[in-house]
C-alpha cells in the first residue's frame, strides 16, 4: 500500500507539474513562464543529485538556487502566487539544514516536508499563477493593454 501511495504521489505530482507548466508556457506571462521553467528544471535535476533521498551538497545547492530564482521572480512580478511559491521553496531549502541540526527528526517527516514544500506547494502556486494570469488577461480592455 505504501508503494502505491508513493507511486501516486510521485507520478501524480509530476504529471500535474508537466500539465500546469505546459499551460504556463503556452498562456502565462513572463513570471509564470519563468517559474515553470525553473521548477521543471529543478524537478528533473533533483533525482540526479540526491542519493536515496539524502540531502547531498549538490541537492541542497540546487534547492538554494531554485529558491533564489523564485524569490527574484516574486520580487519582480509582485504577485501573491509567486510569493507563496518562493516562500515554499525557501522553506524546503531551510528544512535541509534543520534536518541536519535536529537529529531526532524522523526521516519520514523530513521527506514529507520536503515533498510538500518543494513539490506539491510549488505545483499549487504555479497553478494559481496561471489561473490568475488568465483571469487578469481576460479582464483587460484593449486600452489597458496599450499602457
Structural features, described:
- The chain has one domain (2-140).
- It has helices at 2-27, 30-49, 57-77, 80-101, 107-139.
- The chain is built from five helices and no strands.
- The mean pLDDT is 86.
- Helix 1 (2-27) packs parallel to helix 5 (107-139) and helix 2 runs antiparallel to helix 3.
Give the helices and strands, then pairings:
Blueprint: H1 2-27, H2 30-49, H3 57-77, H4 80-101, H5 107-139
Helix pairs in contact: 1-2, 1-5, 2-3, 2-5, 3-4, 4-5
Q: Can you count the beta strands?
A: 0
User: Which percent range describes the beta-strand content?
Assistant: under 5%
Low-confidence sequence ranges: none
- Please trace the helix and strand order, writing H or E for each element: HHHHH
Kindly state the percentage of residues in helix: over 70%
Radius of gyration: 17 Å
Integer average pLDDT? 86
Please identify the oligomeric state: single chain
Overall form: globular
Number of helices: 5
Alpha-beta classification: mainly alpha
What is the straight-line distance between the termini?
55 Å
